[in-house]
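User: My instructor asked us to take a sequence, write out its structure as tokens, and then describe one feature of it. I'm not sure where to start. Here is the sequence I was given:
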Amino acid sequence: MTSPRRLMSAAFAVVLLAGGAAACGEGSESDSAPEDPAKMTPRAAVAKAATDSEGITSLRYRITGTVPQTGRLEAEASMSTEPPVMSMRLTTADHGENGRLEVRFVDEVMYAGGSAVDSTKLDGKSWFSARPAVWGRGSADNNSYRLLPSQVEGNPVVQSRILTASKDVRKIGAETVDGTRTVHYRGTVTRRGMSAARDAAANKAARERQIESLDQFIALRIDDTLTMDLWIDDAGRTRQFRMRGDTRATPSGAEGKPLEFIDGDPLDMTVTFLEVNQPVTVETPPSEDTADIAALADKAQSAGD
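Assistant: Let's start with the prediction itself. The structure tokens for your sequence are:
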């Protein structure tokens, strides 16, 4: 008997013209850094930016770069944690006219539309929905039905804290990001180093931050070492970060056939914070213009019986 999960995957493959927008998909931080960013050590400045990020409940941000098994992409998104919603417009350059995708997460339902969706497979409708869908949590909890790359599924606020686990973070110099003065920092991070930072955390809050960051690191699928750049403004807040590294091989293969592994591709992704703690509203598409992916899966199963 064909599993519901496999039927759902088959339904996605039918309605996505471009084959999907994505793949199947060291040290402790300081909790008492000085308040003036200009007088901080690199480690203290990065730690303060991580602590301050806990006050971010909504964010508008931009993503650019190259993501494994997806290629070059650009995206602009808005998210809120209260309630948890997200809207993203994503363009994959290698898919041409069929590379535009819009994804929304509202009330644990994912909606997808755009030129990457074949409306002829949706009875002429422009959107499809899937549930239950989860975005912005942990690597094990997220579920965008492999529509989004795992690297893009992550919460950028939590991703920006990963550099706190670096033992070699250093100051690169003053730079301007979108017209804002910043200081550029760089360091390298490994999974072992992140685990050590978690274990060495000075208190419960710091440990929870490291656990969340480690989870986001796992979602990036980095093979060994992540190189991370962080740009912090005069107020000590993150304005931009860049993540680079080679990713792990991913399993591939049809049911009943030997499992094969696809070599991991390089990750090079930059995230820029555009607006922080501004109102975010994500609306559901019109119900009359939305097809239920589960219904499509049932239809595919009936046709195969």
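For the description part of your assignment, you could build on this observation: Residues 22-34 have pLDDT under 50 and may be disordered. Try explaining in your own words what that tells you about the chain.
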